[in-house]
Amino acid sequence: MHLKHMNIVIIKYNAGNIESVSNALLRLGIQAEITGDHEKIRAADKVIFPGVGEASTTMAFLKKEGLDLLIPSLKQPVLGICLGLQLMCSHSEEGDTPCLGIFEEKVKRFTPKPGMEYISKVPHMGWNTISNLKSDLFDQSLSQQFVYFVHSYYATVGEHTAAETNYINPFSAALHKDNFYATQFHPEKSGPVGARILENFLNL
Amino acid sequence: MLAKRIIPCLDIKDGQTVKGVNFVNIQSVGDPVELGALYAEQGADELVFLDITATHEGRKTFVELVKRIAREINIPFTVGGGISEIKDAEALLSAGADKVSINSSAVRNPQLINDLAKNFGTQFVVVAIDAKNYDNHWTVTVNGGRIPTDKELFSWAKEAEDRGAGEILFTSMDHDGTKAGFANDELARMADMLKIPIIASGGAGNMDHFVDVFTKGKADAGLAASIFHYKEIAIPDLKAYLRDKGIAVRS
User: Which residues of B touch A (CB under 8 A)?
Assistant: First the structure.
C-alpha cells in the first residue's frame, strides 16, 4: 500500500509529545489521526502509542479508557514510543506499576555509578547509539547510529530486545514481539535516522 | 556512548533571529525556522530559541513561530523568554516545544520550577542562570545580566535541581561575548555538585574552547550563538574536530 493512503492512528491519551509524532509523520507526507476511539484504533493499518509522562497515572488513565485491554489485543503493527515502550512491558518500578504485559521485560530506574555521577546522570538525556539490531524495524545501516533519548527508567535486556544501548548498563533501546514494536528513544526527534525508523515501521 | 551536545542558540525578537554581543547592540541575522533547519541538517544536536520580545503582540508571534519550528525541525528544541506562569509554558509546550527554559522568573519566583516540574515533568524544565563574578563571589544576575541579585551561583543551581530542574543552562556574563573560552572552573565545580546535565554557555570563540568545556568543564552540552550565526565555526567541522580529540559526538 502506498504510504499516503495508509490509515495511521496515534493513540490519544493523557501523555505529552503526541503532536511531535504527528509532525514527524507529516514530514513524511502522512496525515495521521490522533484519537482514543476504540473502533478507529482497531480499524487502523498501523497504530502508534507514544508518550511522555509518569507510569502509574498513565496506566490508571489507560484502564479508565479501556485502552489497557484494547492495546494488547491489536493485530496490526503497533509502535510504542518512550513511555509507550515502558507501559508495554510487564511491570515498571515507577510507582510500582503493573503494565500491559505485552513484553515480559521489566522497567527499572537507572542508578548513577558512585563516584562517576557526572558521566552517569539521570535522566539519560541526549543522543546515544543503538546496536545488536534484531527486528525489521531496523536495517543494518542503522547499527551504531545515534538516536535521541530522554528517560529515567529503562527496560531490561531480554528475549524481545530488538536494539540495545549502553548507558550506565545495557538496556533495551527497542523491543519487538509479533506485531508489537517499541522504541525507548524518540524517532520523531532523531533527525534523518529517526525518520528512517518511522518509515521502516510504516512499510511493515 | 552518550554524545556531548552542540546547541546553537537563536535569540528571537518579533519573530526574527537576533544576537547581541554582551546582550546589547542587536543585529538581525535571519529567519529562525530557516536557520534552525539549516543547523539541524548540519548536525546540531538541539536548538534553543530565546524570545527577547517584551510585548504582548510579540509573544503571540513567538507561539506561532514555535508551531512552525515543531512542524519543520526534526531534533529537540528548547524555548525560553517571558515564561512566568504555568500557562505560558503550557502554550509553548502545546505548540510543540520539547523543553522550556526559565531564568529571571525562576529567580523571582523559585516555586515556578516546582510547579513546572510537577505539571510537565522535570525533563521539560531547563533553568537558565546568568551569573557574574563580583570580587570572587559568583552572583546570579537577571534582565540579561544587567541586575545583580542576592543569589549565589552554586547554591542557586543546587536549589534549582532540588526544586525539579531537569537541566541547568549556565551563562557566565564575564565570558559571554569575549570569545576567550567558557567558564570551565565554575562549570566543573557545578558538574561535581549536581546530578542533572549542564549546558555551558558564554565564551565560545574557537573549536578548542569546546574541547575544553567537555573535558575541563565536564559539561554535557555546549551552547553558542554568534560563532555559528556568523559562520566562524561550521558545525560539521566542529564535530569532526571533537571526534579527533576523542570526544563522543553524534555523527
Answer: 1-3, 5, 40, 45, 70-72, 74-76, 93-94, 96, 98, 120-124, 166-167, 191-192, 195-197, 218, 220-221, 250-251
**For residue A163, what are the contacts with CB-CB under 8 A and spacing of at least 6?**
A130, A131, A132, A133, A134, A135, A138, A172, A173, A174, A183
What letter does residue A135 receive in the DSSP assignment? Answer: S
Sign of CA dihedral A72, A74, A77, A81: negative
Domain CATH code at residue A136:
3.40.50.880
A106 three-class SS: strand
Return the bridge partners of B45, or none: none
Tell me the domains of chain B and their CATH numbers.
5-244 (3.20.20.70)
CA distance A120 to chain B (A): 8
For residue B249 the three cell numbers come to 559526538
Parallel, antiparallel, or unpaired: how do β-strands A33-35 and B221-224 relate? unpaired
Nearest CA-CA partner of A175 in A92, A51, A86, A55? A86
Closest CA to A147 of A188, A113, A87, A107: A188
Question: Using an 8 Å Cβ cutoff, are B81 and B13 in contact?
Answer: no
Cβ atoms of B24 and B11 within 8 Å: the answer is: no
Q: How confident is the model at residue B27 (pLDDT cuts 50, 70, 90)?
A: low
Domain residues for the domain of A102 are 3-202
B56-98 pLDDT, tens digit per residue, is: 777 788 999 999 999 999 999 999 998 999 999 999 988 999 9
On chain A, the residues whose CB falls within 8 A of the CB of B200 are: none
Examine the pLDDT at B32 and tell me if it is beyond 70: yes
Mean pLDDT of A112-134: 88
Query: Any idea how long chain B is?
Result: 251
| Interface predicted TM-score (ipTM) | 0.91
Q: Count up the domains in chain A and report the number.
A: 1
